[in-house]
Design goal:
3 strands; mainly alpha; 3-stranded antiparallel beta sheet; 167 residues; Triger factor/SurA peptide-binding fold
């Protein structure tokens, strides 16, 4: 639900020499740290567990699919931040708070406990939900900023991390 708030962005690949050590990709000149992918994979593992499903084992096609989705998500998150910075778009914590209050009111009748239960069912932390809401607000602000859409930055993936159908 909230994680889907991220806007998909451009593709790239190939020039791994430019990707710094400890990164899975380079978005423009901004590295995407391996740690961000690890965090997203842990979130995915929690989501599987919350649904009573076994997380795919490393080396399987199912794991490769989950990892590819996680790579796309973390790269899209950085891409969105790079595009927002290039346009001078800033989202404040107060804006995130307002949107979260609206979400809780509209989707959960204002109930904090129902909101928290929904997060648990998705294997999501409150911090991850805030990050997703921030990304949603950034995407909305970029769309409403007027003018032409920002050019997606070049994305270069480290070996083994280019998601399927990138390019």
């Amino acid at each position: 639900m909230l994680a889907a708030a991220v806007v998909l962005a451009g593709c790239g690949g190939g020039h791994t020499a430019r990707v710094p050590p400890g990164a899975i990709a380079l978005v423009g000149d901004r590295p995407v740290p391996r740690a961000a992918l690890d965090v997203e994979l842990r979130r995915s593992r929690r989501a599987y567990a919350a649904q009573g499903k076994a997380f795919p084992a490393r080396g399987t096609a199912a794991f490769s699919h989950v990892q590819s989705l996680a790579v796309r998500l973390v790269v899209d998150h950085v891409t969105l931040a790079v595009q927002a910075a290039s346009r001078g778009v800033v989202i404040t914590p107060a804006q995130v708070d307002r949107r979260l209050r609206q979400l809780k009111r509209d989707a959960f009748g204002g109930s904090e406990s129902r909101y928290r239960a929904a997060l648990r069912r998705q294997g999501m932390t409150a911090a991850e939900a805030r990050s997703s809401v921030r990304d949603l607000l950034l995407a909305e602000a970029l769309r409403s900023a007027g003018g032409t859409a920002p050019e997606p930055p070049e994305i270069v993936y480290a070996d083994g991390f280019a998601p399927a159908n990138s390019g």
